[in-house]
Amino acid sequence: MTLRTILLASAAALTLAMPARAADPDLIVLDWAGWEFDGILTDYVAKHGQNPTYSFFADDDEAFQKASSGFKADLIHPCAASVSRYRDADLVEPWDTSKITEFANIPERMLNSEIFKDDAGVWFIPTDYAYTAIAYNTKEVPEADVATVKVFEDPKYAGRISLPDSTDDVWSLAFLATGVTSWENVTDDQFKAAADWLRAVHPNVRAYWADPAEMAQLMATGEVLVAWSWNDGVAALQQENFPVGFNRSPAEGAATWFCGFVNAKDGPGSEDKAYDFINSLLAPTSAQALLDELGYALANDAAMKTVPEEAQKAAYVDPVSTTLFAQTPVSLEFRTKMIEEFEAIKAGF
């Protein structure tokens, strides 16, 4: 995906009141901006002759707000930490995994939660994963400076850093920066320390990026030299030959996340086509396409074995030996606490 393409995808996401492109009326997919591309839709289009109808969002909070406000979709693409919200709001129903051809190849580590799988069934089908780490301008920023997440505190980069406008990503960074490597059982003191760190860093922030396109644009223009970033913004910049590095091994660690699909309750379209979509996305042929287009890995271990090791390394999805903060599901109470505190910090309080 070129920088121009990812910027266009972001622009499409801003048109929130209507789908980005109306196509197959029997399947409506509420998805991340930039996810409508041919490589993962090959089997679906071959069978049905057209793409699904998409409506795009920029982050998990926006997607949930849209779904909980009455927008009717058949499939929704949250990341793991947000799945509990859909279940608590009774917006989703279990999947019939016997209809998902590659289900056995989804790694168990991505299903090991009662929020994803319980006696009532499987509620979440993981499809993609990658990392959140330090993106930096290799011409302007010495490698030694990004050896630690303390780079975001460095007065040298005041007004030249960007953090994600994302609850999950910004708090995983804050916890890592303050010595916490999991948000399970976080104490009040640990939460306060992380919040204090975000407040201290806030004056250095040039912008909180809303999507990878914005992050890529901020770096491409030179406004931002260091960002806490997903893989796809880095991939877009590299394809434009921008001098960008991506350090997944700072001293404190990096974050790892995975996303997937929930089956919306009372969806207006075809349930059979929903399964056709999931099977198309999880097909082995999608692995290289997903890596090429977004810089993400497919949540299908067998499929990823077909992707050359050098290609995985180039996209920064090869295994990394560092502390990893896994953005796993959190309680609604704790998520609400993180959201409210982050909004206060951004507002200067």
Automatic annotation (TrEMBL):
Pfam families: SBP_bac_8 (PF13416). The keyword Signal applies. It comes from the Bacteria. Residues 1-22 form the signal peptide. Transmembrane segments: none annotated. It comes from Gemmobacter denitrificans. The keyword Signal applies. This is Extracellular solute-binding protein.
